[in-house]
Amino acid sequence: MNNRPARSVSARTLAALIALPLGLALAGCAFLGAGDRGRAAPGSGAGTGSTKENSTGTGTGTAAARAKGGGRSFTVAAAGDILIHPPLTEQAARDAKASGRPGYDFDRMMAGIKPVISRADLAICHLEPVLGEPAGPFRAYPDFLVPPQVARTIKGVGYDTCSTASNHTLDHGPEGVFRTLDTLDREGLAHTGSARSKAEADKPLVLDVKGVKVAQLSFAFGFNGNRIPPDKPWLTNPISFKAVAAAEERARAAGAEVVILSLHWGREHQPDPNEAQLELARRIARETGINLVVGHHAHVVQPMEKIGGTWVAYGLGNQISRHDVPGGLTEEGVIGWFEFTERGGAWEVQARFAPTFTDIPPKPQGTPGSGLPGAVPVPARDHRLVDVAEALRGGAKLLPEQRARYRLAFERTQGTLLNRGAAKDGLRPLRELPG
User: 281: left (phi > 0), else alpha (psi -120 to 50), else beta?
Assistant: First the structure.
């Protein structure tokens, strides 16, 4: 790792990251309304765990890498914000009822991404809201409280660990943090970014991924005006360069060979990273040994960029959400796919991407001509998260408007991801857009 001394992030950067304009800060997120893989032991919230040998058709397994002169290798999938708005809770209730079960079932909603997520050796989610009690009550903006059943689905589609530092981490105070982490533990999901004690906060999350010790770190720009309690300064992680660098040092001391950093940063609904993101990304790439940065919070896809040898995904958009006023971009997201290979004692990373889309049912009154005599009824649709390329391969089942919308999502996501020159560094789709 780089041994240059850590310096505090500039006042200008902190001001841009933390002191957002009041309207944006208060808007929060409501502007618009696998097998047994690497993980910490349940109940710990941090530590080391074991991983399965992943077999998967990525073409980058350990044997293939060694045949090309490489050493150990593993794959990482990281995706955007999981933010459960009321329409998604209502959909989960309908899906549970359709299956003859009470409560809330998010499995059907998120099943479309399982083939990709479950294939990674390490899959990282970003859980933005606070988890509530199984029967509710639930709340939306400004203080999210969502069904804890979503954690079981997150585990079921193949995620191993979640970053939990976001601007909504403190929506329901320490009790909300504790309940969220307790729920993740019960489902066998590792987590980092918030903690229930100083000891938990001080212990780095280090996972065993195909024999490689991989650490995950998680920080957020702020907490929507909620203050970290003075008697619990360890409750969650605010961003500063000094804190990030110190966390990496602790992870390395705990045996981490690779360090992945999740950052909740930037400005909402802006496809371009702001100056503060660019400045902090460059400091991290040049002054730390962090191997990969994955970003969240914007609710729209932002570019990927390779700075020196470090890939930065500035914003992965939404994994799944349903904002009050869907903005087009907010339904689009991306799974970042990163292939790590050890060569000459260092880690090389190849970046790929898989565009995703949350299909939202049209409102009946919004379907032109649907009330005219002889009109053909529009098939009912549900909220469903899809892997865009895979959905288009099965296009015979798609409505024409779905097919057109999915193609737009893929092409726009690809254009955004590449607009800081990542193509020259090899960024390309995990699967190409079908012809």
Answer: alpha
